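Entry 14. Structure prediction run on the chain below.
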Amino acid sequence: MTLAMNAHITFPEYNGRKELIIKKVSSVEIESSFKLLTDKAVITLPRNVKFFDKNKVREVFRRGAPVIIALGYNGEYITEFQGYVTQVSANIPIQITCEDEMWKLKQLPVNVSYKSVTLKKLLEDIAPNYSVDALEGVELGGVRFAKTNVAAVLDKLQKDPYNLFSYMKGKQLVCGKYYSDDSNEDTVNFHLERNAVSNDLNYRNAEDIILKVKGVSVLKDGKKIEVEIGEDGGDTYQLTYYNIAVKAEVQKLLEKDYETKKRGGFDGSFTSFGTPSIAHGMKVNLESGLYPERSGTYYVEAVKKNFGKSGYRQEITLGGALL
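Output returned:
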């Protein structure tokens, strides 16, 4: 069966400019991950487009204008990106850089001070008119953010000692939930020899994994309880917990997470066709006919989508394995 690639990019009416729909593009690149804060897209237009003989590029694609990118095969489309135009190239070919809802949110001004505040309360206060899905039970203690913006607050939260990454899910601000356990999306099956175009996956047996893990519990008053287990000479990780005041409890949690990371499995990325559409936080089940014992289910940490002359592809980076 022949798959015909289709693009349908909509620039809705904005500040007096009429709605514009583009179906012919040279390429579209989309990158998303909970580690990026802001999902991004780059649209590259064909070199010879008569429309721009009479229309100025920067008047058509204005900074802040909304954009919806839908891609697919054989006339069936999936919305892969929604956001805003942030930059338009001055050169040919025309490249339109876009960012998701986080672009608008992170510009909001912030001026707050608390003797003690939860993560959810802080985010609700600095992001009015947005719903918030924050990691439960996180007490930040006393914090102050004076004459700044949301971007600076979220940047602070993702650094030590908090390690709380934020991203947008539509109009919802998500923080501290790296993989969407609450996602209603079904697990997507991929057969590595049949469905993957290529892969850069590495498989490691449990007995070959050398690992050291440091656990840090951040208390309400800003103090820390630290525990470290594992062996030198291999991978190192730091895991953050919140408001666990008993060192033995931190040790118990860390040992459980250590055993999870010591399990054998794949890491790295693989490339698939454009459908089924994958987003970070979803779960994928990998199967191999050559190595059936290596099958397993993994969270998706990041996705890069490319639509152009080379086809419609998704580079899917694996996160943690499910037990």
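The helical segments are 51-54, 57-60, 102-105, 119-126, 150-157, 247-262.
Filed with the rest of this week's runs.
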